[in-house]
Amino acid sequence: MVEPLIRKIIHLDMDAFYASVEQRDQPELRGRPVAVGGARERGVVAAASYEARQYGVRSAMPSATALRKCPELVFVSPRFAVYKEVSRQIRAIFAEYTPLVEPVSLDEAYLDVTHNLKQLASATQVAQEIRTRIFAQTQLTASAGISYNKFLAKLASDYRKPNGQFVIRPEQGVAFVEGLAVGQFHGVGPVTAAKMNQLGIFTGADLRRQSIEFLQQQFGKAGHYYHAIAQAQDSRPVVADRPRKSVGSETTFAQDLTLFPELLAGLRPALEEVWEYCQRTGVLGRTVTLKAKFSDFKQITRSRSSVGPIPSRAELERIGRELVESLFPLAKGVRLLGLSLSNLTSVQQAAGQQLTLNF
């Protein structure tokens, strides 16, 4: 009997990426609490350095709140073009070790190194070498989690941050999950964690004791996922360059947002990641969808379709802004915003369609 192949998955996550890039490029900011974002009265923190996090400053936090927590906080305007270029450098390094790279955002990705191109002895060695090369080329640090599935690799990458790596081996998975608070699980947000706590589920061990039927009754379709991760199971493969029906990104905020400028600032990282994907892959889309999840966990979407593919970032931002406007007046605070692009086509196809139309 052939034993099933045990995957070797690495989750690479850059440390305080936007803020670290700013500290790298502006030496006077090193060692100081830095926030990337707007310092104006209604501004929002897009990213915070580790020095700022020690004061409780977090992404999506209103700038005024951040300044109250840390009066010495230095605000820097974001430079997304620079962050994208650094991201491209990092992904070029990944590609030298495996073709199975699944980017999650500009600053993180999953790598399947079950069979690595360098024929290094272990996934641990691959992760260490990649992190060393990232620092040598960009002067930025990355953290890595190594395990046999994506869920555990993601957990592991948070375990030794910043500038560290951690391994969860197959025989350690269940015990590792059992000892964690459910709020530490990727995919379990603050509202879900609070509901689990109300049901007497505080740790992975508590979650593991629940039947799949009970979890589906309480959490709907997500119940199956929660049951699987409580057993340290995750069958999702690392998939690179797959044909996509849509591309999207979303952000869960540390505090509910209620003001229009806050929501616009909160949507910006998702917008940048979606457009970066379009530029990197040569794909354009026709339909923009805004996803909003409110403080009571209820969720709505708003969509808008164009006659042809959306040709520019400015046009995508304009549509995103109009979709955010359509949420007002707000009855409740917003805890999550997402933006996705669908009805995808390649730039070449879009150009061909345009030529056909202009007969």
From TrEMBL:
Site (Substrate discrimination): 18
Record carries keyword Nucleotidyltransferase: yes
Reactions mediated catalytically: DNA(n) + a 2'-deoxyribonucleoside 5'-triphosphate = DNA(n+1) + diphosphate
UmuC domain boundaries: 9-189
Cofactor(s) listed in the protein's UniProt record: Mg(2+)
Annotated EC: 2.7.7.7
Main subcellular location: cytoplasm
GO-annotated molecular function: damaged DNA binding; DNA-directed DNA polymerase activity; magnesium ion binding
Keywords: Cytoplasm, DNA damage, DNA repair, DNA replication, DNA-binding, DNA-directed DNA polymerase, Magnesium, Metal-binding, Mutator protein, Nucleotidyltransferase, Transferase
One Pfam family named in its UniProt record: IMS
Xref: Gene3D superfamilies: 3.30.70.270, 3.40.1170.60, 5' to 3' exonuclease, C-terminal subdomain (1.10.150.20), DNA polymerase, Y-family, little finger domain (3.30.1490.100)
Entry keyword annotation includes DNA repair: yes
GO BP annotation list: DNA repair; DNA-templated DNA replication; error-prone translesion synthesis; SOS response
Protein family (similarity comment): Belongs to the DNA polymerase type-Y family.
Protein name: DNA polymerase IV
Species assigned in the record: Hymenobacter montanus
Phylogenetic placement of the source organism: Bacteria, Pseudomonadati, Bacteroidota, Cytophagia, Cytophagales
Gene: dinB
